[in-house]
Design a protein that fits this description.
Strand content: 15-25%
Radius of gyration: 32 Å
Structural class: alpha+beta
Number of helices: 22
Number of strands: 20
Distance between the termini: 92 Å
Shape: elongated
């Protein structure tokens, strides 16, 4: 190759490399100066301090307007590492705050640890200590000027006017790194709803942050607002919530469940509003505030009786005989029985070697007295004939899937959609479930116990209460919800929609009559009152230990105002705890108060504690 040609090629190569390098530098400079605000932010931090102005969190009230949760002032101690490091008298600082030097060193290291504090910057404010009371802060404020780099940030802390409804109200705690990554609204040291409505309605309750831009001098000292606050933004307070709970009814429910494990749920059938939601054991929500929240949560989490568990929506139980009305509805709607169909019961169901026991009563029985006396035999025969009916259903799998479809339409087997976090779905098995469970042939006799709410069937107390509301409405329900109103917002449309079941509307009248008979002369006689007509159904759910006591009912019969479910673990017969507790809840809500006789009954039930050993858990 000629020498001139080689030089010419080298010239182009060198020129190309030079152009490439210059282009890379230009792109990088453009990214740093135009696309990225890192340098700008660091430069601004020398001239300005952006102080976040936190909004007041929304107030939470009960259905009558009684404030249950509100906010009061507290103070966070903030630090800017760039300004504070090696510039303060550590001994005096620790003495003023009443902390040890070890705590100071550890806390400063924690703040700088990006694995624990992903939003860390040495030029921005970080939380050193949170939730100082006004008294504690006033002592420290006198010496604040001696500690450069440290600033006070006024915040709010949640306060409770009640010791009740802890599981519904929920609580507020410091954000986690995952919270910060999921939502850019938050930064380290912020607070967020952790449980209950505080979590579910977090975006409505939290409001919108404001900001104050403060001007610094050359030494970093605050000189005042930048441009007289022209670019400041005021905080927007959080929205207030009105709960559907009646706090007086909630208080009575928690009294009645003292010393017992279980739940009470009451619903207004005409709206789906939850009137009370009791989970026992419970705890005082006032203990879950301030800087001791973490310690208290660990203590409650370690309790073997699990007081942090909201059994109303997370407890999955065999519903026992409270389940029988659903079976009557299915049998009637599918034409398996008529209202006059009678089945035998000689202290239980006997068929081809299978036996399901029952208490003594007259037999044979039709549907209405079978509900009134809670006859196991009747409902076992009904399901058996349904599952074995090859003229109507091609296989047993087809039959059980049809059965399951009815149950799902009644609100079982899936989450109802209550406005609280953590709701469980329960269990309503289908054909695939049993094919896998038995790994061989199975038939109606194999699973007949599900007709009386035993076997594989599981339901939450909320689902059982919702069944009561559905029967009270004669065939439909509204999605249960604990918030009645959000300030300046319409109620979610999903809470206004009726959910109709697959059962025939005409079938419900027979179920209502059966539940009324249970109160007049059957297993629910303890719920009878002269004030209004009660309809009820007991449940005695078998358990590895002592039986569980349950009740489901509503009142008044023809203009229902309340539907209630009671579930007491290891409480024995349904009539032992379930019925009297349910009756008192209905009386309190409908009449507004308990009679003297009923108040005496309430105190007696409150005093009756159940002994729970490890074997019961």
């Amino acid at each position: 190759m000629p020498k001139d040609s080689l030089l010419e090629n080298r010239k182009y190569v060198i020129g190309g490399v030079a152009v490439f390098i210059v282009t890379v530098y230009i792109i990088r400079l453009f990214a740093l100066q135009i696309m990225s605000d890192d340098y700008k932010r660091n430069a601004d931090s020398n001239a300005f301090m952006k102080k976040v102005d936190y909004p007041a969190r929304g107030v939470i009230s009960d259905r009558k307007g009684t404030p249950l949760v509100y906010s009061s002032n507290s103070y966070d101690l903030m630090v800017i590492m760039h300004e504070a490091e090696n510039r303060i008298d550590t001994a005096e600082f620790c003495s003023t705050l009443g902390i040890s030097k070890e705590y100071f060193i550890n806390r400063m290291n924690e703040i700088k640890d990006r694995s624990k504090n992903p939003g860390y910057s040495r030029f921005t404010q970080q939380v050193f200590m949170n939730q100082l009371s006004e008294v504690d802060f006033s002592i420290f404020q006198e010496k604040l000027y001696r500690f450069p780099g440290f600033y006070a940030q006024r915040r709010s802390i949640r306060q409770y006017s009640t010791s009740n409804a802890a599981h519904v109200l929920g609580d507020v705690g410091e954000v986690s790194p995952s919270d910060i990554m999921e939502d850019t609204y938050y930064q380290a040291g912020d607070y967020i709803g952790k449980t209950g409505v505080e979590k579910f309605y977090e975006k409505q309750l939290r409001g919108e942050k404001g900001i104050q831009i403060m001007l610094r001098d050359a030494r970093g000292r605050i000189k005042g607002s930048y441009m007289d606050g022209k670019f400041d933004r005021k905080p927007v307070p959080g929205k207030n919530l009105t709960l559907s709970l009646d706090i007086e009814l909630q208080e009575l429910g928690e009294r009645l469940m003292e010393g017992k494990i279980g739940s009470i749920v009451a619903i207004e059938p005409s709206t789906g509003e939850v009137l009370c939601m009791v989970s026992s054991p419970t705890f005082d929500p006032r203990l879950m505030t301030g800087r001791n929240r973490g310690k208290m949560q660990l203590r409650l989490a370690a309790d073997p009786l699990k007081p942090l568990l909201n059994r109303a929506i997370m407890g999955m139980y065999p519903p026992g005989s409270t389940f029988k009305p659903t079976q009557g509805l299915i049998f009637l709607s599918e034409g398996i029985i008529t209202p006059s169909t009678g089945y035998p019961c000689t202290r239980g169901f006997y068929c081809k070697g299978m036996h399901v026991g029952c208490h003594g009563h007259e037999a044979p029985l039709s549907l209405i007295p079978a509900i009134g006396t809670s006859c196991n035999g009747f409902f076992c025969w009904g399901l058996y004939y349904m599952l074995e009916n090859r003229k109507k259903y091609k296989t047993v799998e087809v039959a059980i899937d049809k059965w399951r479809d009815y149950m799902v339409s009644m609100g079982f087997g899936y989450r109802l959609g209550v406005d609280l976090p953590g709701e469980k779905r329960g269990l309503i098995p289908n054909g695939d479930y049993y094919d896998k469970a038995y790994k061989s042939s199975w038939n109606g006799l194999s699973i007949v116990s599900i007709s009386i709410g035993q076997g594989e069937v599981l339901a939450t107390p909320l689902q059982i209460a919702n069944l009561g509301a559905t029967i009270a409405n004669r065939g439909y329900y509204y999605t249960p919800h604990v918030v009645k109103k959000v300030q300046d917002e319409p109620l979610e449309e999903s809470y206004k929609q009726r959910h109709y079941t697959d059962a025939k509307t005409s079938s419900y009248e027979y179920i209502v009559r059966g539940m009324r008979q249970a109160v007049i002369s059957g297993t629910c006689k303890g719920a009878q009152t002269s004030y209004f007509e009660v309809c009820g159904k007991t449940g005695t759910a078998q358990n590895h230990g002592r039986d569980h006591s349950a009740f489901m009912g509503f009142a008044p019969m023809n203009s229902p105002k309340i539907a209630v479910a009671v579930y007491v673990e290891n409480g024995g017969w349904g009539a032992t705890f379930g019925v009297p507790i349910g009756a008192l809840i209905m009386e309190k809500y409908i009449n507004g108060e308990l009679s003297d006789i009923s108040e005496a009954k309430a105190k007696a039930i409150q005093a009756r504690h159940i002994s729970y050993g490890l074997a019961d858990r």
